[in-house]
User: Fold Cytochrome P450 from Rhodopseudomonas telluris.
Amino acid sequence: MSLAESFDLADRAPLVPPTPPRAPEGMTALGRLAAIRHNAIASWGQRAYEDDVIKGRFFNHASYILNRPDDIRHVLIDNYENYTRTAAGIRVLRPILGQGLLLAEGRAWKHQRRALAPAFTPRAVGTLVPHMISATEEIIAEFARGAGAPVDLREAMQRLALEIAGRTMFSFEMGQHGQQLRDFVIEYGMKLASPRFLDLLLPLGWPSPQDVSRAFFRRRWTKFVRELIAARRAAGKSEGAPPRDLFDLMVAARDPETGEAFSDDQLGDQVATMILAGHETTATALFWALYMLALDPETQNDVADEARAAGQTDALDKLPLTRAVLDETLRLYPPAFLIARAAAGPDTVAGESIRKHDVILIAPWLLHRHEKLWDNPNAFMPARFLPGATPPDRFAYLPFGVGPRVCIGAHFALVEATLALSRIVSAFRVELIDRAPVMPIGVVTTQPDRSPAFRLTRR
Assistant:
């Protein structure tokens, strides 16, 4: 008997969660630009979910949306050095991430990747699991004290993921810093993260009006990150003791070829990248997973049963359904809904002649719902990812990217989210009080358009 059969998943009518209406064919360039500013997901029409390649224009350059796995492999692996971040992407991310791993290019990226890799091996992540569990148990205790009162799970998962990020990074609780950090993230997301017309039009070396505001933000932000690092350094580290958190691992990191360590400025950018990229994407994935399970109470009960049978485990192989729920959630709501690259030189992709500065778009949102690549692509069907199921094409499922620039924290995020989801659902029945649809919007990450009220009751 397969796992899908043991959970009776195969015989259930699948849940199809709400999504925004697709853009009308023939939308003007200005209309598409306006849609992108508010919700990039709503800027794609039906053809984008059916065709292998969609050709368009991005100002005075050609643009291509790629949906065929072989073409995606070519851009992200075979010839990845020819494709760099777009100017608009750098404008939006650099003020908050600096020159950290996510934005670095060339030799700087290779140095950072090699130096950081040992901090994110399964063995290294295993040493951080107690931080993940302690933060999760604390929020479970908080929910229990609420005694069935309405809960904003979006805000709660942000706090949980931020607390885990703080403890795994610095070994201290984020109580005194968490609200300020959340305020920075909310301020940037609401005011500065969406590209404006001039952000898209101007060369990177020409500052846009938004860049001035971003520069002021960066000064305040980097000062805050330096204060976090100073607080962690003041806590010290016992001589000869093993690393206790990511900060210890990053301070000790050396490029295996050159022996070079991170400078203080580089360390600050890595801290910002790991905390921000890690906590926001994990919080978003946990929110959507809980929303799916609230809409699908049978699968939610199966996850709770699995957790109880496994006990208080930190072994993911004992939680295959919980992991499958997360994998399917990441398919339907990939945190990074769009990968945008600019060609550094000529190439041929999908039979098209690519010129320098042409824009290549690989959209996990589209890829994960493409009608040629998935059966019933808009349905929530965790059985797709249970052991024994036919795995998807490696280049059709990209929740963490793929190739040399695949997310370095993918294993960390999956361990964190799986353990947190399992413990929360085993402790509480999660129900929606507000039944109005929650729509995904694509602005930096795949966010909910609002925070519905949930009720959590003890199992």
